[in-house]
């Protein structure tokens, strides 16, 4: 420990700092800064975990990494770079996901303190639960562009990460994506789905073909279209999956183009009900694409809007290249879409713009689409430096047993009207109804028991929304019927069965247990026929909250302001995020409001207008809501 | 901006996450910036690190010191092996590793020597950042840079306190990135081509599809005309009148054969936008102030492009603009078929282009009259300037000399803060000033030698009293603060340096790119409370 540190810290604190074992989760933008700060503050027993490898776009801020490290493990390189300057520090690096079952409650119990430097909500939820289970204090943090936040979580004393409901990650209704896109983001989402259908993991929720079950279609119209389809060509092929069809056709650009952008569109046109009040889409012909450029052609490739002809060429080239990439993966291989992969990005840019053109939606530049498709959150060295310093200050207070002095701090984009760049506030008490940290966690899930399968319950609800990793579930019916087991293979035959087939009805209770997270949750099922906005399910705290939510929804509808601040967030990016709105930031706007920031913090809450704009991906969206 | 960096990496990839904040032109400004750092302290190297990573052009470190054990303890960019060697050289070498596209240089000399013997040396820098300078040299440097028009950023970390002071005579901001802005739609004084476009559309004869895809801007304009016709040509101003207009629009929604209104999103949008879209077109008061600024009124052959552009826009407003700024030329996204949306877009874009060409003519005329190179202001710059003309800002900091002279110091403000119970961040400003007085007298900082802490406390108190007396302030400062200050013993803690390193680098980036408003002029961070204050001293 430096002499300076010694003179400024009490003896006891110095002792704590130099002897305690701490865990840093994440070695990205915040993590790099944090490791440096910790080493120079006198911490000497540090473990760091990160599953990621180094990318070129990290180098503008993750200063422990250099060009020659691209592709290597973040945690390993971060460790080596830190040791180069501070050889006396002990660092253990794990190149792994913190959600891996190897890191159980006993692993977390080793630490005096855990510091998150994460970029996604799933991992934050998980570490939150692990720290609660192990009763280890956690410093949580996130940045987005110029904004940032740091807060402290201590079991029983403060709110946990999940005490307040976060804006859910809004997805677009399937029929908007497949049948009636009206905004650029709809086309971008479709293009990413197309990438996965052709080259990636098969996900039936990402179907790109016309949807005959569009609720706007009367039963009759849907059937009519279906009939037409069966008598026509290729119905069976389509059902076979886009992938199989594409492989059989050798990823022939003309065939794929013609199917997606001519035949499917013609088919959509046959669903006449959709186009009564909408501009009907206009099919495109592969051999006759316009080379008219929507704006001046003098700009850089990244910034200008491509002509249809150029889009077609890029689309064709990308199919060729991706086909080769896929083949290189061997049998059963697949590609994972990556915004930093040139070909993968070009594919989405071309496909999204072709679709936008067909539907009369404004086209976007490659630069903008990268941000929309990749949910890129701007990230800079300065903000991460500030936030990592604030984390250490909170850590020192925790090690000094001064939980009462710990704060939750927001970094504003500029001094607010009270001339404060930082807003520090007291930590709130735990929410007694929190479905994670309360004594008896309870939650109500609203869904249709006759439509939801066991697999959907497990993957989308328990692991998705409720953040579990390996749940066991039994029905609380006196018989202890186990419907989901974390033991592989034990309940697989249940996967495709509906909840109703197990006698689950309105008011049924499910006991869920995640052994890894040491987390028990009782779920009450509320059965409804249909939810708003084509949602499949909704998680609410308890019945009272459900009632309030339903009322609010109906009110919103009356006002007709569907000011839907949608986020398209599907994956998260860097350092951002406690900001869970990572989503918010970036290209992907979100609801910011529910967070109760104090009045003087409001100046950095974005206006609805701004958010909407950011959907379009132009302009920098420094919206934030953190935590 | 070259597409590929020296290091062979694609710039768009390497800098992608920041380009989304300040754009290609911001990045270009950064890449041509020359940054000077005085003293490679922990704070100094942290600031430079945060400027080298995003890619400034070059940096120069001025430092006469040798690396000491103390430096290694708090400075990431100095290693144990470097103890005894030049701090400037070692820091330059290690910082240079952060980004191959940035060139680094160093000078082993004291800043006061340079100030005395080679004052022009500083003229070539985009910004000078100074850490750990004594009061006397700082005042000299402040005066020198003030006259050279080079911004000076003074940074300091003292125990758990951080301090930043920006000193610049004048800084012009074209892209201030305001948090919220009204769209520039001009419904109160419509663009002629817009009127023509609206008049060519007859909504009553449209089919359902066209009706519900008429952009809301046109819908609003149509009903606004109706409202004006029945109100003597006046626009709705008060809440009640705007509500009436909204009602009028709602009644225009098509009805189905049962008389039930259809779902027409464009009409919803028109209603929703009544309040903001009818915001009267005017020149914002901040910009009016610039028009009256002597620098705008009295152009000379030395005038900077910013003022020539401001003058050209002022003249435009008074002539072609008929009282309004150049049209911004962008419209928001809205429900529409693409054909009419594109038409609408071109109406605004064409008008903006026309306004830019009017301003350009004025700029060239002014440059000629002033004897400046008529090509010295590019078409692109004029365009950016016009698009941002409603958000122009000028920052004029008070000089260090004025701050340090008790006659001209902003004593009232300091006094208010000291009286304010919440104002203890400013207490630390007065204490920082006091420890400098202390240093001047004793040649060490209070508490630096552990055995003298008690006597130092008394002496520091005396220095503080003297300072308050000079300011004619009767405020008192709690002993606790004085003790704390002595406990710090002028130590520079890495975490505080890291914090100030982030904040100061961000301010430097604002200065270099000319985007966003920098802090004017003092920033104080109190790490114990995680609080901070900005004030104009």
Automatic annotation (TrEMBL), chain A:
Residues 8-434 form the THIF-type NAD/FAD binding fold domain. CDD domains: Uba2_SUMO. SUPFAM superfamilies: Activating enzymes of the ubiquitin-like proteins. Signal peptide: none annotated. One of its GO terms (cellular component) is SUMO activating enzyme complex. The active site is at residue 175. ATP binds at residues 26-31, 50, 58-61, 74, 119-124. GO terms for biological process: protein sumoylation. Residues 201-235, 551-627 are annotated as: Disordered. Residues 445-532 form the Ubiquitin/SUMO-activating enzyme ubiquitin-like domain. It is found in: Nucleus. It holds the Pfam family ThiF. Belongs to the ubiquitin-activating E1 family. This is SUMO-activating enzyme subunit. The lineage of its organism: Eukaryota, Metazoa, Spiralia, Lophotrochozoa, Mollusca.
UniProtKB/TrEMBL annotation, chain B:
Pathway: Protein modification; protein neddylation. Gene3D superfamilies: NAD(P)-binding Rossmann-like Domain. Residues 15-532 form the THIF-type NAD/FAD binding fold domain. It comes from the Eukaryota. The keyword Aminoacyl-tRNA synthetase does not apply. It holds the Pfam family ThiF. SUPFAM superfamilies: Activating enzymes of the ubiquitin-like proteins. Keywords: Ubl conjugation pathway. One of its GO terms (molecular function) is NEDD8 activating enzyme activity. One of its GO terms (biological process) is protein neddylation. One of its GO terms (cellular component) is cytoplasm. Coiled coil: none annotated. Belongs to the ubiquitin-activating E1 family. ULA1 subfamily. PANTHER family: NEDD8-ACTIVATING ENZYME E1 REGULATORY SUBUNIT, UBIQUITIN-ACTIVATING ENZYME E1. This is NEDD8-activating enzyme E1 regulatory subunit. It comes from Patella caerulea (Rayed Mediterranean limpet).
């Amino acid at each position: 420990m430096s002499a300076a540190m010694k003179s400024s810290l009490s003896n006891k604190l110095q002792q704590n700092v130099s002897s305690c074992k701490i865990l840093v989760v994440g070695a990205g933008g915040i993590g790099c800064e944090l490791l440096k700060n910790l080493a120079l503050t006198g911490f000497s027993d540090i473990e760091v975990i990160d599953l990621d490898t180094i990318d070129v776009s990290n180098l503008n801020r993750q200063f422990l990494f250099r060009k020659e490290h691209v592709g290597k493990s973040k945690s390993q390189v971060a460790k080596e770079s830190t040791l180069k300057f501070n050889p006396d520090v002990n660092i253990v690096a794990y190149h792994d996901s913190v959600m891996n079952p190897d890191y159980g409650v006993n692993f977390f119990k080793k630490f005096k303190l855990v510091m998150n430097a994460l970029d996604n909500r799933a991992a934050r939820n998980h570490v939150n639960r692990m720290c609660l289970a192990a009763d280890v204090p956690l410093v949580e943090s996130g940045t987005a562009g110029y904004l940032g936040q740091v807060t402290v979580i201590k079991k029983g004393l403060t709110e946990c990460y999940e005490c307040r409901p976060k804006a859910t990650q809004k997805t677009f209704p399937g029929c908007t994506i497949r049948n009636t896109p009206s905004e650029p983001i709809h086309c971008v989402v479709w293009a990413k789905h197309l990438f996965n259908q052709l080259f990636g993991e098969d996900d039936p929720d990402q179907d790109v073909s016309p949807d005959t079950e569009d609720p706007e279609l009367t039963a009759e119209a849907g059937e009519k279209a279906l009939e037409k389809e069966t008598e026509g060509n290729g119905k069976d092929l389509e059902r076979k999956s886009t992938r199989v069809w594409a492989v059989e056709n050798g990823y022939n650009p003309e065939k794929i183009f013609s199917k997606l952008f001519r035949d499917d569109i013609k088919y959509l046109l046959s669903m006449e009900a959709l186009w009564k009040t909408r501009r009907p889409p206009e099919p495109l012909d592969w051999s006759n694409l316009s080379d008219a450029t929507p704006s001046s052609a003098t700009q850089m490739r990244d910034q200008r809007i491509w002509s249809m002809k150029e889009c077609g060429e890029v689309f064709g080239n990308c199919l060729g290249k991706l086909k080769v990439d896929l083949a290189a993966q061997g049998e059963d291989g697949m590609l994972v879409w990556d915004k930093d992969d040139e070909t993968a990005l070009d594919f989405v840019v071309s496909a999204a713009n072709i679709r936008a053109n067909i539907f009369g939606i404004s086209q976007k530049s490659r630069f903008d689409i990268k941000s929309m498709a990749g949910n890129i959150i701007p990230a800079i060295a300065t903000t991460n430096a500030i936030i990592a310093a604030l984390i250490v200050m909170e850590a020192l207070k925790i090690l000094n047993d001064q939980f009462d002095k710990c704060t939750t701090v927001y970094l504003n984009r500029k001094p607010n009207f009270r001339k404060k760049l930082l807003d520090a506030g007291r930590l709130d008490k735990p929410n007694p109804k929190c479905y994670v940290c309360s004594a008896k966690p309870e939650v109500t899930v609203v869904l249709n028991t006759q439509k939801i399968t066991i697999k959907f319950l497990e993957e989308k609800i328990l692991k998705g929304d409720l953040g579990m990793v390996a749940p066991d579930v039994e029905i609380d019916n006196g018989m202890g019927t186990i419907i989901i087991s974390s033991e592989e293979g034990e309940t697989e035959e249940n996967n495709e069965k509906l909840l109703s087939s197990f006698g689950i009805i309105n008011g049924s209770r499910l006991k869920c247990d995640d052994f890894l997270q040491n987390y028990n949750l009782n779920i009450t099922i509320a059965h409804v026929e249909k939810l708003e906005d084509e949602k499949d399910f909704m998680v609410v705290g308890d019945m009272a909250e459900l009632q309030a939510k339903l009322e609010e929804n109906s009110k919103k509808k009356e006002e007709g302001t569907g000011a839907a601040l949608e986020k398209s967030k599907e994956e998260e990016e860097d350092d951002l995020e406690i900001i869970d709105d990572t989503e918010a930031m970036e290209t992907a706007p979100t609801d910011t409001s529910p967070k109760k920031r104090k009045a003087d913090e409001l100046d950095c809450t974005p206006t609805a207008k701004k958010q909407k704009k950011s959907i379009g991906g132009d302009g920098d969206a420094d919206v934030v809501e953190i935590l | 901006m070259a597409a590929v960096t020296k290091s062979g990496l694609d710039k768009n990839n390497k800098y992608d996450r920041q380009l989304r904040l300040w754009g290609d032109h911001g990045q270009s400004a950064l890449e041509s910036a020359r940054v000077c750092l005085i003293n490679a302290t922990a704070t100094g190297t942290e600031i430079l690190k945060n400027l080298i990573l995003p890619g400034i052009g070059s940096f120069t470190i001025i430092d006469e010191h040798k690396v000491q054990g103390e430096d290694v303890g708090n400075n990431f960019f100095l290693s144990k092996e470097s103890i005894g060697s030049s701090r400037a050289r070692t820091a330059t070498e290690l910082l240079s590793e952060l980004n191959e596209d940035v060139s680094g240089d160093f000078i082993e000399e004291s800043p006061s020597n340079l100030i005395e013997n080679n004052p022009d040396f500083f003229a070539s820098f985009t910004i000078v950042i100074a850490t750990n300078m004594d009061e006397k040299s700082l005042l000299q440097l402040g005066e020198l840079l003030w006259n050279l028009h080079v911004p000076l950023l003074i940074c300091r970390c003292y125990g758990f306190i951080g301090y930043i002071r920006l000193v610049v005579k004048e800084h012009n901001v074209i892209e201030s990135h305001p948090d919220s802005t009204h769209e520039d739609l001009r419904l109160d004084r419509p663009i002629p081509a817009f009127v023509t476009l609206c008049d060519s559309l007859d909504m009553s004869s449209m089919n359902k599809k066209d009706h519900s895809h008429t952009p809301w801007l046109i819908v609003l304009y149509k009903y606004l005309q109706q409202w004006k016709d029945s109100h003597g040509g006046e626009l709705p101003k008060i809440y009640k009148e705007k509500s009436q207009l909204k009602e009028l629009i709602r009644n225009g929604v098509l009805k189905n054969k049962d008389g039930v209104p259809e779902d027409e999103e464009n009409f919803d949008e028109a209603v929703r936008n009544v309040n903001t879209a009818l915001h009267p077109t005017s020149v914002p008061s901040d910009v009016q102030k610039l028009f009256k600024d002597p620098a705008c009124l009295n152009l000379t052959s030395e005038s900077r492009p910013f003022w020539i552009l401001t003058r050209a826009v002022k003249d435009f407003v008074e002539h072609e603009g008929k009282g309004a700024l150049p049209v911004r030329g962008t419209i928001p996204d809205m429900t529409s078929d693409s054909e009419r949306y594109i038409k609408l877009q071109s109406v605004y874009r064409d008008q903006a282009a026309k306004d830019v060409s009017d301003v350009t003519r004025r700029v060239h005329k002014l440059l000629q009259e002033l004897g400046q190179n008529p090509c010295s202001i590019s078409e692109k710059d004029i365009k950016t300037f016009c698009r941002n003309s409603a958000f122009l800002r000028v920052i004029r900091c008070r000089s260090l000399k004025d701050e340090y002279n008790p006659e001209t110091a902003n004593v009232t403000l300091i006094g208010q803060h000291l009286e304010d119970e919440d104002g203890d961040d400013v207490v630390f400003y007065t204490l920082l000033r006091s420890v400098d007085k202390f240093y001047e007298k004793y040649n060490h900082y209070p508490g630096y030698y552990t055995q003298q802490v008690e006597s130092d406390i008394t002496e520091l108190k005396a220095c503080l009293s003297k300072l308050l007396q000079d300011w004619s302030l009767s405020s008192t400062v709690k002993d606790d603060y004085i003790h704390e200050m002595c406990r710090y013993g002028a130590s520079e803690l890495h975490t505080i340096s890291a914090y100030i390193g982030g904040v100061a680098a961000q301010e430097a980036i604002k200065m270099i790119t000319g985007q966003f408003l920098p802090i004017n002029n003092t920033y104080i961070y109190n790490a114990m409370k995680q609080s901070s204050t900005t004030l104009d001293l």
